[in-house]
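Journal club side-thread
Mid-discussion, someone asked how the predicted structure for our own chain would compare to the paper's figures. Pasting it here so we can look after the session.
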Amino acid sequence: MNVTPPFDEAGVKYQETRISHWNKVAQKRDRWRGMGGWYHRRLSEIYRYLVNPNQRVLEIGCGAGDLLASLQPSRGVGVDFSPEMISRAREKHPQLEFHQIDAHDLSSLEGEFDVVILSDTVNDLWDVQRALEQLRRFCKPYTRLILNFYSHLWQLPLAITQSLNLAAPMLRQNWLTPEDIDNMLRLAGFERIRSMQEILAPLPLGGLANRYLVKLGLFRNLALSNLVVARPAPQPFGQPSVSVVIAARNEAGNIKNIFERVPKMGSRTEIVFVEGHSRDSTYETIEREIPLHPSTPSLLFRQPGIGKADAIRLGFEKATGDILMILDADLTVPPEDLPRFYDAIASGKGEFINGVRLVYPMEKEAMRLFNFIGNKFFSMAFSWLLGQPIKDTLCGTKVMWREDYAKIAANRSYFGDFDPFGDFDLIFGAAKLNLKIVDLPIRYRDRTYGTTNISRWKHGLLLLRMVAFAARRIKFV
């Protein structure tokens, strides 16, 4: 098999010049400290939010390894082409692995990683697409690729600080735009999940600007650093099994319909009922219907606590399917729509599939006016908070992989435990894991039995509290 060499003559000269340059920078930093410390400290804070501890992390262009070490990886591997940088990284962080390898040819490196980082690296590469292509062999479907790179707007300010010996000197850069990176990621077999602009004032006392102002309007476009989170391009997953989890309270009139209408999906479809202190005969009705449908594996549990979130968590804990689905027992989302959710996640198009009721016209009694207005407001608020479009936050139908839910549950303390619905707990958790969130429009139907358990004003105030809390934990980190 013919292998294209990484460089032609011009590329070889380009790389030799840069290796020599970064060797000198490494030596200079032994006795010199510029103003870059504030920038790198803020960058580490951002990465520590995006990367949970105890993950397998690969950093390309690791320099002296400080960012990699700050992430507390279970296995941390740093790669850099500068022997001087690698020497210092090994001395400072002996608990990590460091390799002197060029990013354009990683054939000598082995392993799979949860996170791959290129921090201030892509603008210095000879062939960005080739370097990105090299990373595919280290990735599983859940691997996240995180890149940050300088904005072109800062070319002149950075040049001035370098001329004053306040920042490490740089050679001529690529100065790629987020759109350039997005295109190169697609060409290399990756898909962007979200992008952010970070660090407005890389100076002492810049905390207010870097944490808050940079997230707002015009200030966002003035940020020093563009940051992109991506994943490997999706691949289909075969025929995973499914658990449909249904929290049922005062829904006796819908139980027979649920059994008759939930379709068979994947290699196996089970229904997990969690009954929640009903005033009618919901529990007894489910108990009676289970033996009448022997072809449908079914489980029934009494909810120990209160609230839909508590019920769904119990159902997820007991579920055995590879894919977890939530279906509201009121059947306002038709069970016949569930195969579309299954196809979206099993094909790899998304990793968290969120039902959306606000695209198609609704039946006239399906949602009251103030509920509709509230949902519109919260969808805009959460789209801004999460950096991914979320058109409907409170649609009951949500679908995710059981493995991802386990990670969300393990990290639940980060957001607190005051969401009685469970929707925001899952959405926040999915965003924190950098999952690809996909909205799936459905036609929302009127109830045929029972009444809603949602209180517009009481629960609306609680949702506002969640928005404020999420802003502190997700947006202004």
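Post-session note: The CA atoms of residues 372 and 379 lie 11 Å apart.
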